[in-house]
Each structure stands twice: as C-alpha cells, then as structure tokens.
Amino acid sequence: MPLDAYARKRLWRWYDNPLRRRDDVIEAWIVLAAWTVFTLGGTAAGLVTARAADDAFARQRAERQSVRAVVLHDVPLVAAGPGSGSGRLMTAVRWTAADGSPRTGRALVSTGSRAGSKVTVWQDGHGRLTFAPPSPTRAAVESGVAGTAAATAVAGLVFGSGTVARRRLDRRRVEAWAREWVLVEPRWGHRTG
C-alpha cells in the first residue's frame, strides 16, 4: 500500500468527507490529545520523579554518617524465626553522637557478634540510628525505576481516560445509528423473516 493511501486510511477523520460525523472529529481530537499528553506528560512526570528521588537520595547521603558502635549483647550465631536468612539481627548498640553525648539504640548487626565488638551503624543529623543511604549507583537505579513508574502511571491514566471517552462516543454512534434505522427501515418495501 503506498504511503499516501496508508496515510489517508489512517487519518480519514481529519479529511473532509460526507461520511465523517461530528463524533469522528471529536474522536480524532481525543486520540491526538491522548498521544500528546502521553508523550509530553509521561516524559515530564518520569523526569521530575526521577530527579526528585535522586535529590532525596543525595540528601540522605549528605545527612547520614557512619559511626562506630559497640554491641551490648551477644548475638546468636544461628538465628531462628522470620528474616533470619540475612545473617543479621537487631540488637542493642551504644555509640557517641556528633555532639559527644552517649547514645543507645537497636541496629542490625551480623549474627555471631559478641558483646563489646565494634560495628558500623548509621545516624541521621539528629543522632538517631537509621539505615545506610543508598550508594550512588543504587540511587540512580531506584530513581530510574521511580521515574519509569511515574511515566507508566501517566500513560495508564491517559489511555484509560481516552478509552472511556472513545467507548462513550461508540455508544453514541450506535444509538444514533439505531434512531436513523427506525426512520429508514419502514421505507424499505421488502422485509425478511
């Protein structure tokens, strides 16, 4: 099929012809708007979300700092129960905050750690224990995943809305056809069945 014929077939709603209905023009605009919002809105949502996530991870890396802590209780070598497959368990630790005050809290440490052994824990700007910030590589991957999820969400909303609008137009076209058929059908002389 030549390119011109293909384009005319795909873009028939945009060309003036006697069979084109008002609903066909509305549908053409809905499709154009959906693709525009999908392309521009999805891209913008993905980029903004990825940038915001990357900034949040960078803030975490800047605010959190590692400190040396002392394990207060022996940690069993083999842990029993849920989550024991990681080789780490929560236990009490003591560390010195940036302001010089002694602190205690619970942190994940390796199984088999003895009381008095040194471990590395992470604290936030207020001296509270927290998780380690993601590495730059992991942060980039997670930012990319978040951006992709945002773009996908926009795409789902746009295509879902477009589908609902097009189905309503289809229903209106079928109802219009039924009304016209009621007017035309009695004029036909030959009836079947």
Could you please describe the fold and organization of this structure?
The chain has 193 residues and is α+β, with helices and mostly antiparallel strands. Among the domains are: 38-63 and 134-156; 65-132, no CATH class. The chain is 51% helix and 17% strand. It has 3 helices and 5 strands, in the order ααβββββα. The chain has helices at residues 3-10, 22-63, 136-184; strands at 65-71, 88-96, 102-110, 118-123, 129-130. Strands 3-2-1-4-5 form a 5-stranded antiparallel beta sheet. Helix 2 runs antiparallel to helix 3 (136-184). The two termini are 41 Å apart.
SSE topology:
Layout: H1 3-10, H2 22-63, E1 65-71, E2 88-96, E3 102-110, E4 118-123, E5 129-130, H3 136-184
Antiparallel strand pairs: 1-2, 1-4, 2-3, 4-5
Helix pairs in contact: 2-3
InterPro entries: MT1774/Rv1733c-like (IPR039708)
Keywords: Membrane, Transmembrane, Transmembrane helix
Protein name: Proline rich protein membrane protein
Features:
single chain, 5 strands, rod-shaped, membrane
Proportion of strand residues: 15-25%
Major sheet size, sense and barrel closure: 5 strands, antiparallel
The computed structural class is: alpha+beta
State the low-pLDDT regions, or none.
none
Taking all Cα atoms into account, the compactness measure Rg is 32 Å
Organism: Streptomyces populi
InterPro entries: MT1774/Rv1733c-like
Keywords: Membrane, Transmembrane, Transmembrane helix
Protein name: Proline rich protein membrane protein
Question: How do you describe this structure in short?
Answer:
The chain is α+β, with helices and mostly antiparallel strands. It has helices at residues 3-10, 22-63, 136-184; strands at residues 65-71, 88-96, 102-110, 118-123, 129-130.
